[in-house]
Amino acid sequence: MVVEPGVFRTDFLDTSSLSTATHRIDAYDGTPAHVTLDWAGEANHTQLGDPVKGAALIYEVTCQDKLPGHLYLGPDTLERLQVKLDRVEQDVAPWREKSAATARDDAA
């Protein structure tokens, strides 16, 4: 089982856990890398996820006979997953029939 946690209110984004470069390269301002670094500094200790609730759910799930392949923890992971599923469906939908039609005629 892969546990895919969202942002939980821990020290994960704190300098005690996260190491970042001392100097930033100005040419990268506005890029996803710098946007993420800025977000990490702002989000530290304001994350919505409750680590106690997350750990309790992991324990509950692992006590079951059948484990999921992936356990998404937090509304943020569910939102990102839904965006991904929607993108996959948008890619597949227009070509579904033609893609299925590429099977060999004797495959039936």
Notes on the structure:
With 108 residues, the chain is mainly alpha-helical. It has a single domain (2-107), classed as Rossmann fold (3-Layer(aba) Sandwich), CATH 3.40.50.720. The protein is built from 4 helices and 2 strands, in the order βααβαα. A two-stranded parallel sheet has the order 1-2. The chain is flat and about 60 Å long.
Low-confidence stretches: none
Mean pLDDT: 88
Indicate the radius of gyration in whole angstroms.
20 Å
Beta-strand percent range: 5-15%
Structural class: mainly alpha
Task: Kindly report how far apart the N and C termini lie.
Answer: 35 Å
Number of strands: 2
How do the strands of the widest beta sheet line up side by side?
A: 1-2
Q: What is the element string, with H for helices and E for strands? A: EHHEHH
Per CATH, what is the topology? Rossmann fold
Query: What is the tally of helical segments?
Result: 4
- Tell the overall outline: flat
Largest sheet descriptor: 2 strands, parallel
What is the CATH H-level superfamily? NAD(P)-binding Rossmann-like Domain
How many separate domains? 1
The CATH architecture can be named as 3-Layer(aba) Sandwich
The portion of residues assigned to helices is 40-55%
